[in-house]
Each structure stands twice: as C-alpha cells, then as structure tokens.
Amino acid sequence: MAGVETTVERLRRFLRELTPQARTLLINEFERSMLRGDEAVGADLVLQELRALMREQREGAPRISNAARLFFKPLEPFLVDDRPDHVHPGRVARGSLELLWTWVGRDLMPHALPAFVDDLNKALAANDGGRAEQLVRAFQDRTAIEIDAAFAAADETKTRRRLKVQIGTPRAEEDASVLKCVLKARDMLAAMAADLPLRIGNLTDDQLNECRTWTDAAAARRDGSFLCALLLVMSRLTAPWQLIRFGIKAAGTDAAARVAETPYGISVNIVLAELERMVGELRNDLRSGQGVAVGVSLKAIHDAARGLRTELDLPVDSTWGRALASQRAQISELLRAEIESVPGRVRRLLRARPASEIRANSVVDADEVAEVEALVAFVGDCRYFARELAINEMTQRAFSDLQHFLDTNTRALLDGLRHAGAADLSFRQSQLDAAVRFCAKVFGKDYAALLTKATEVAATAERRSARA
Which phi-psi region, left, alpha or beta, contains residue 5 (left: φ > 0; alpha: ψ -120 to 50)? Predict the structure, then answer.
C-alpha cells in the first residue's frame, strides 16, 4: 500500500537516522549476541538491515526517485543485493531498478509517466495518501499490461533482442517478467505478507503447512505468482535455506530426484543461488574493513551448506550435488585465502622497527588496522564452523600463530615505547593501540586491559625519561 509504512520500513528509517558509529556498535553487539546463540526477537532482521545500510554507504548505491520508490514497493521482498548478472530465480537485483524505471518511462509509457509523476507529487504535497495510492496502483496495473503487450509483440528474435537492449539490465527478460508478475499478483501477495509472521525462526511442519495454503493457491493461479509466494516465505525465514523443506514435504522424501519432480523443486535452486550470493557478500565484506558483521554471515553460509547436505539426499553426480560441491569448494578456497593471510598482515603492522625505519610523527594506517582487526575476529569465528567447511587445520594453525606472535611481540613493542624519541613516539604508540585491539579479539578483554595498562606505564616511563 502506497500510504502505509510497514514495520520494516519504520525500522529502516530509524536505523538510517543513527550515526555510522552507532550502527557499528549495534552491529558488533548483535553479532556477539547471535554467535553466542542468545535468543533476541528480530535481531537477525535488525542486523540484516544494518548490514545493508553499511554496504549502501560503502558502494554509493543510487537513490531512485520518490515516484519510482512507491511504484517498486510491491517488488521489495523480491529484490536481492547482488550483481545484476547473477541468476536468482524470481528476484531482481536492486541495482537494476533504475534501468527498469528508465525503460518504463522512456520506452514503455513515455507519455503516461510525466503525468503520473506530476499528479503523484501533487497528491503527496497535499498529504493525500489515498489519492497517491490510487495513482500508484493504476500506474502499476497499466505497466503490467504494457509489459505483456511489449513481449507479445516481440515474437521475432531480432525484435526481442532489441527489446532486451532497451530494458538494459543483464537479465532483461527475466527482470521484466518478475516485475510484471509481482504487479499482477500485487494484492494477493500483499494479503499473504499480512498473514505471514514477520519472522519465522524455524520452519516446522505446522508453519510449513500454513504457508503452503498460500503457495498452493498461488500455484493454482498459473500466472507465475507461485515463485513469488515461495520467495515471500523465504524473506520471512531467519534461516532462508529452510525453504528446501517445501520440496521435501511435497515429495514425501528427501531424495533429490523425487524433490526435483515436484513444483517445489525450484526451492532448492533458490537456496543454491542464495548461498552463492552470501559467499560473494562475505568476500566483499572481508575486504571492505568497514565493520560489517562477517561472523554472522559465516554462520549463515555454514548453516545453509550443512542444511542442504544433511536434509537432502544429494547424489554427488546430480546437478544439485555438483552445484553444492562447487559452492563448498569456493567457500573453502575463499576462507583459506583470507585465513592464511591474517598472521602475515598482523606481523607487517606490528613488527618492531628500529627508529631509522620510522618516518617522523607518523602513525599506523587506521583503515588498515580496522580491516585487520575484522579479519582477526573472523579467524576466531571460523573455529566454530571449521569442521563443516573443511578449514579446521588451517584455522587452528592461523589462530595459534596469532596467539604466539601477539604474546611475544607486544613485549618488544612495549620496550620500544619506553625508549621512544619524539620522532617515533606516535608510531610506536599507534602500534600498541592496534595490538590492544587485536589482543582483545584473540585473548579477550581482560588481556587487552592489562596490555593497555602496560602501554600507559611504558608511555609514562618514556615521558619521565624525556624530562630527565
């Protein structure tokens, strides 16, 4: 509904008003809570929105107009934050919305769009929510009809190719089809969204049966809304991989071949695509050093890979079996590269240097410290999920290397601070400040607090020596 703000939208608006520092603190607190296994209603939803905001700020995502935002509102549960060329059944990349909106206004309905935007802006300025909603719904209905007509007319290969070029997104035909389907099934999907719980922590048989009343009804419509109904359920799942339980329930068995024969077999494809997206997201977050909660991302990937492997009987030579094996290999390779790099990066930052190697009044790069701190915490988190992801040996080795280096090297850093001169004092102090942050992740807050006191004593000794 154009004039009604949902719970999620109110949450998103509240989080947008927080300072970046406040968001980072919230992310850290929620991540620690979730990794401890604490039950906090809605914590996963808050963390999901916080992480999306962090990425949006980092990547500078374009903001679409107010008219476009209201027009695309029914599409929100079916948007995915991923590269537009990645395949996600029934979903549209958020980055494709601007191109879709341009296509609607430039090629699909060039004469209708200006009048719609003008009338809508007048209704919004007058605070007439009812009129605004009426205008949006009418424009959505007309758009769905025009999309149908455009593709029906493009029955020749050359004409269809030209239409895809006009749309401009990497998956043009699929994106337009999803948009049309969602707009046509708008009211049914809105009723379903209102009926579903805001978050489903565990898709048990009772909840699954309740959800199937909606998905089966959507399947009976034969208008493509079945896939949308499945995705709407997934958007409410705390653990999205549990969507595969629809296929298992429909088949009455966990045998992959039998599941694939049911209409709900598409649920496995959806989850595999979501797993691939999460792996790419984790890769970007690890390299960003922006304080995004990578521990929870790792847990979600671990749980999805384990759920697919344990709840489905997947032959290794089946299409799904090969897809999962490929994903697990990518996960292991990604984690291996990141984990094995961490001890070396810590050494480069904290290596005890002679004064001749230190530029006067310099400090350790703050952005690099933040990035490495996130990676150190990540290695610690990996220990909880190492066995399932086949990274146990490398994780233990990297963590032991970190423990040994931090325990022995901090003594040299403290000694260097005690004897620092005016030129190298700031650099040595910044090294120890970084060491305190890393030790808090490896040894805990008590150890870090002791190192902080030792640093203060060393700095005081240096000042006394300078006065003397």
Answer: beta
Question: What confidence tens digit (pLDDT) does each residue in 67-91 have?
Answer: 999 999 999 999 998 889 999 999 9
Number of domains forming the structure of the chain: 3
Nearest Cα to Cα of residue 365 among 430, 425, 459:
430
Q: Above 90 in pLDDT, residue 140? A: yes
Residue 236 sits at φ, ψ, to 5 deg, of -100, -5
Claim to verify: residue 41 and residue 133 sit in the same structural domain: no
Q: Which of 72, 130, 76, 74 is CA-nearest to residue 104?
A: 72
Q: If you count them, how many residues does the chain have?
A: 468
Strands 92-93 and 79-80: parallel
Task: Assess whether 29 and 71 both reside in one domain.
Answer: no
Asked whether residue 393 falls in the same domain as residue 404, the answer is: yes
Give me the helix-helix angle, 129-153 and 157-167, nearest 10°. Answer: 150
pLDDT score recorded for residue 285: 76
Arithmetic mean of pLDDT over the chain: 87
Q: Would you say 264 and 250 are in contact if contact means Cβ atoms under 8 Å apart?
A: yes
Let me know whether 132 and 36 are in one domain: no
Closest residue by Cα to residue 6 from 190, 144, 177, 145: 190
Q: What is the DSSP string of 112-159?
A: HHHHHHHHHHHHHHTT-HHHHHHHHHHHHHHHHHHHHHHHHH--SHHH
Q: What 8-state DSSP symbol labels residue 106?
A: I
Q: What is the pTM of this model?
A: 0.77
> What are the CA-CA distances from residue 159 to residues 153, 165, 171, 311, 412 (Å)?
8, 10, 16, 45, 71
The answer to whether residues 169 and 80 belong to one domain is yes
Predicted local distance difference test score (pLDDT) of residue 30: 66
135: containing domain: 64-184
Say what angle helices 294-311 and 244-251 make with each other, to 10 degrees: 10
Task: Please report the pLDDT score of residue 465 as a whole number.
Answer: 54
Examine residue 235 and state whether it is found in any structural domain, yes or no. no
Same domain, residue pair 32 and 86: no
Alpha-carbon span 246 to 251, nearest angstrom: 9
Predicted confidence at residue 323, as pLDDT, reads 92
- pLDDT tens string 7-46: 666 777 777 777 766 776 676 666 666 555 555 556 666 7
Instruction: Single out the residue of 206, 261, 186, 269 nearest to residue 234, CA to CA.
Output: 269
Looking at 10, 45, 61, the residue that finishes a domain is: 61
